[in-house]
Structures are given as C-alpha cells and as structure tokens.
Records
---
Amino acid sequence: MNIPPDDKNTRLLGSSSLGWRDRLARFPTSLVILLTLLSLGGFVVLYSAVGGAENNGYVWRQVARFGVGLALMLIIALFGSEKIYRRYAYLLYTIALLLLIVVFLTGSIGMGARRWLALGFLNLQPSELMKVALVLALARYFHDRAIPMGIGLVHLWIPMVMIILPTALIVKQPDLGTSILLITVGMVVVVAAGLKWRLFFGVLFLIGASLPLGWNMMHDYQRRRILTLFSPEKDPLGAGYHIIQSKIAIGSGGISGKGFMAGSQSQLNFLPERHTDFIFSVLAEEWGLIGGLLLLSLYCMIVLRTLIIANMASDRFGFLTVVGLTALFSFQVLVNMGMVIGLLPVVGIPLPMISYGGSSMLTLMIAMGLMAHVSIHSKQHGGTI
C-alpha cells in the first residue's frame, strides 16, 4: 500500500474541481451495493430476533436509520470537500470530547452505564461520534507534519494524549469495548502514518506492562467477564450465561441452519441481547455455517474495497482517514464475532450494520461517506467499482 506524500503544496481535488457527472462517475457504487445487501440481511435477522410481526417496529426503525445513514453517506461523499473535513477535524474532535464530558456529568443511565445524552427525539451516544472524530483528528495531525525518517517519540505524545483523553472518559461510563476499540484504531492510524518499528514494539511493551493497572481499574463485572471467557461453566446462570447460550445457538445451527424463525435459543428467549450484541448467534442458528460465511464474505468485500480506496488516496490525510475507518469497521466485526463464539470477552460491541442501534448505524454510514469521498477525489481512479 503506497502512502501518499505529506506535501502541503500538493494541489488537492476538491468538489468544486469536479463536475456532477465526474463525481457520480467516480462514486464507488459497489460500496453502496455491499452495504445495502448487508443491511437487508440484517433486517431479516432482526425481524426474527425480535419475534416477528409483533415487534416489527424495531425493523422499521432500523430501516429508517439505514435510509438516513445512506443519505448522509451520499451528502458527505458528493457535496463535501476534503479541505473542509481536514480543516474542521480538530473542531469535531473537540465537540465529541466535550459531549463525552457532558455524558460523564449528566448523561442518561441505561443497563448500568452512563453512555447517552437524551435529546428527546434521539438518544445520542457521543462515544460513537468520537470513533470517527479521533480518526480524522489523527489523520489531520500526521498530514500536517512531514516526518520522512519515521515517527519518533517526540511526535508521539500529542497523538497519545488525543487517544487517552476520550478513552479515559469512556472507561468511566463504563464501556470497556469502545475504550479498547479507540486505542486499537488510534494505534493503527499511528502505525500507518509511519511509526518506527522499535517504538511500535516499545509501545506494545508499555501496554503489556500497564495491564495489571488496567485490571485494577476495571469494575468487578468486567473482571468476571474476562475470567468467564476461560471457564463459563463455573457460573452458568450468571456471568457465563451469555456465552453458553450463544455457543449453543451457533452450534445447533449446523451447516445450513434450522430455518427462518425456527431457532430454539432465540425464539424461546434463551439467548440474551439477541437483537443487539448477540444477533450473530441468531443468524448462525437459523442460517447455519453457510449464512455465517456469506455474512463474513460481505464484510471481507467491504474491507477489501475500502483498502483499495486507501491505496488510491490523493494525499496523506485521505489515506490515513480510510485506513483508520477501515480498522474501525473491521475490528468491530472481529470483536463481535469473537465475543459471541467465546474467543473474546463479552464487551458490548455491536455487529456493524446488523445489530439494532441508531448511533452505531449512523456512525458507520458517515464513515463510509468519508471513504467514498476519498474515492471520488482519488489520484488514480478506475471507475465506480
């Protein structure tokens, strides 16, 4: 993957330099098709997960969110300017950080966590906004600095502060999953920007050395979730219940599954959080290994398409933005699937475009819009594919 040069004098393609036909011709249509197929599959699984027609309001709300998200994606991709996104990256990061502070002070509490701002018509989750804001802010930081010899310690402390501040606020909500996701995505952007390998391994060592401190800072239920990963059978009706029921659902699906709305674990309410965090278990039980592989194939095609966009980016900001947002998307997939099959602790990460939820859906569609924008204004464009 070729990293575009960090040259402030490089003339960028803005939306004003491309006509309507050019922008539409350059739009990555395949990305919209893949996201639509993914969401359609999600609507079907969600319909089953919530019990069918009696609760189809969940499905219609999710359809509406996808429609709004698709509109946002098109607006960001076709009407925006990379110079504007770059110029206001720090402002967006600051707004997201301030919203996290407001959540910490006065946020709404749900399921034992203070994560939302009740706006009447919408429960806003600022941690979702911070996922995109952090990527844009880090991309702006490294775009503005020419570091031909590689990123050293002197260049690293500001990005580390940018990552640690929102992470600390999200840990206090508490939301361990999003905290880990922010650190991971932030480090991916730093590495992609040219972090020296010696420093990279040094950072990994420091993270490893700080794990005992992180363990002591965790809530009791978070420690139980991690310990339960290794022996869920020790507490089958408590901390291990989610993982045990999820494994039963996935295993009982076999190769071809039990059929639409025929999964015993989900339809008989054994499987908890089946419309949100554990929706993949519903899919695997009803559609089997074949359905799971089809879903994974769609995810892989989306990630491959976004990596192609990153490789064609016209500048360093676009490249780092797409790499960071691709990492955000793909790590959410890996963590959620790893969680429901018992390979990772239960940390509450939704399955992208499939799990029920408004903030997550809109955040991902905004991210896709930014990546589509980079594709439209790329230096070497190969059409709408």
---
Amino acid sequence: MRKAQAKKLPLSPDPKYNDKMVTRFVNNLMWQGKKSGAFNIFYNALEKVSKQTNEEGYDVWKKALANITPSVEVRSRRIGGATFQIPAEVRTDRKISLSMKWLIRYSRERNGRSMADKLAGEIVAAAKGEGSAFKKKEDTHRMAEANKAFAHFRV
C-alpha cells in the first residue's frame, strides 16, 4: 500500500429503528443519491414482510441477513502459471457487506411490481433459508469446500 488507508466515516443510525446496520443497508440500496426514496422502499418492504409473516419485519430482516452471511469464500491466486481458487475466511466487515449486496441484487432480479415487493419477497425467502441470495451463500460455501485441497496455498 502506498498511503495510509482511508478512515471509515461514522454512520448515523436510521430514524425508525435507531440502527446503523439499517443505514448501511439503505446506502447499498440507494440509487443516484436518493436516500429518502431508498428509506421508503426499505420501510415499505419491512411492513410487507410483517404482514406476510405476522412477525416484526425488522427481526425477520435481521434473521434473513444472518442466514445469507457467508463465513468462507474462494479467492483466486496465481501460482506457477496456474490460477487456483483458494478458500479463505471472510472478514467481519466484508461478511455484512456481501450479505447486504446479495440480498439487494437478487431482490432486484425478482419478479414483482415495486422494489419494495421484490425486497420483501427476498427477505422472507432468505429468512426461511430459501431464495437466490441464500443459494448464492450455499454455492460460495460449496465452492470453498470443493477447493479445500488448495488451502495450503493460503497467504
């Protein structure tokens, strides 16, 4: 690294749940700097989740994030002209980041009328251990397990 690493800016907690994780999620969800729109989508999605599951939407969202958080991933490493997929532990900050990005990405790919509908559907599916985001986590773990033989190349 050439210079000092950039400092992490402190996030302000969201107004409704007073949670910094919600703000972080909304920042990932946001497009073109439209944060209030992203908050509306997120809060509407949680309302729809609570109607569907008869549980608190916020708790279901937390459970969904926990279900799709990966613990291992594969990293490419070039050794002697060949590229190996080497399994590695995921840093805590990256775990959260990956799970949020997967949830948002696969909810955007879903069929539905509004983004809130799609996000709600993906949250409910992930909380049950189903859906595309959960499948992505399973595939990541499966890939790491398959390449366990190359773990000795780890740096």
